[in-house]
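Q: How would the structure tokens look for this protein?
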Amino acid sequence: MNECQFYTAMEVAKMLGVSKGHAYKVVKNLNDELKSKGFIVIAGKVSKQYFNERCYGMSRV
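A: Here is the predicted structure in token form.
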């Protein structure tokens, strides 16, 4: 399992073309959604799969 399954806030900022502060807000909102569904989350990182589903409408990457 060499490939990380999470995007960092810095990666999110770069992909979305937003500031680091805004990226942290995006990550926090996505993590809040996951937490409410019973998932374990890591502050400052978000699941690649969930990010892609929510931001790009992809079901699987």
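The beta strands are 6-8, 45-47.

The chain has one domain: 6-56.

Upvote if useful.
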